[in-house]
Amino acid sequence: MFSRAFQITTTALRTVSRKPSVISTIRLMSTQYEHILTSRPNPSVALITLNRPKALNALSTPLFLELNKALFDADADQGIGAIVLTGSDKAFAAGADIKEMKDKEFSDVYKNNFLANWGELSRLRKPVIAAVSGYALGGGCELALMCDIILASPTAKFGQPEINLGVIPGGGGSQRLVHAIGKSRAMELVLTGRMVSAQEADQWGMISRVTDNVVEEAIKMATEISSKGQLAVQAGKEVVNAGYELTLAEGLRFERRTFHGLFATKDQKEGMAAFAEKRKAEFTHS
Ligand code: CO8
Description:
This protein is of the alpha/beta class. The protein is built from 13 helices and ten strands.
């Protein structure tokens, strides 16, 4: 993966100088991380892999700082259209790092707003696809829920086991689950800590689908999204997410205004002209 990334980087280096998107590509590739891996499976997709295998990708503060940096670098890179976030076969992430948390006091966590930076993923403008295999528990489940689309392999197990530790979800699980699967099922997960299989999560509408080769499928989906007009992709993400927060009437008004706004783009002219002329659209993201 890295050698492929390196190949893209060196190819890019040869053609660099005048192209800002290529320069930021190099920045993404050249950052050294300890707890995550970053690569570019193809020029338009960033792949971020959580990499603390011995701790089942427990989400420590240093890991999260690296993750946020990699995510925001990818978000700022104009060559990238979508981001895939994954873990290992055994664990997407087994939650916040319990060993890091166990001795903390209320005054520390409250004063220092412990783990507040977890929410930053939801500020990204580009789509993020979670490719989940193995355990996605506690903060790991919440991290998947913060992504825009979840694909799961048949081995995936989702759960909010915080109740077994004497706490509750703190990274948005109790709220996002209510939206995703309804109150009764969310309540069951939060109060029992039970893990659900990929198949059950699929039936519940918590994920998009169960698939073998989940990372490849996620990259394929990210590549397809990247081939669309990026202004429309960004707008699509924005309006769907607004559905979480607005009333139906406000949401419909916001969607209509955003739809109208896209008529100011070259991509709308190109997309509709290409349809009428029976050819493939060449979007310029402008
Ligand atoms: N934190 C730290 N270390 C962990 C974690 C974790 N969450 N999960 C696993 N590990 C470590 C184990 O301690 C073990 O390390 P070692 O080899 O040094 O003993 C190693 O990973 C392997 O784990 P196991 O031996 O336990 O592996 P098993 O295959 O037997 O079990 C399980 C796998 C079932 C996943 C088990 O490890 C487990 O139950 N893990 C804890 C799951 C959990 O409770 N997660 C919730 C954590 S709390 C949380 O996420 C709150 C989020 C709040 C966010 C707030 C944002 C503002």
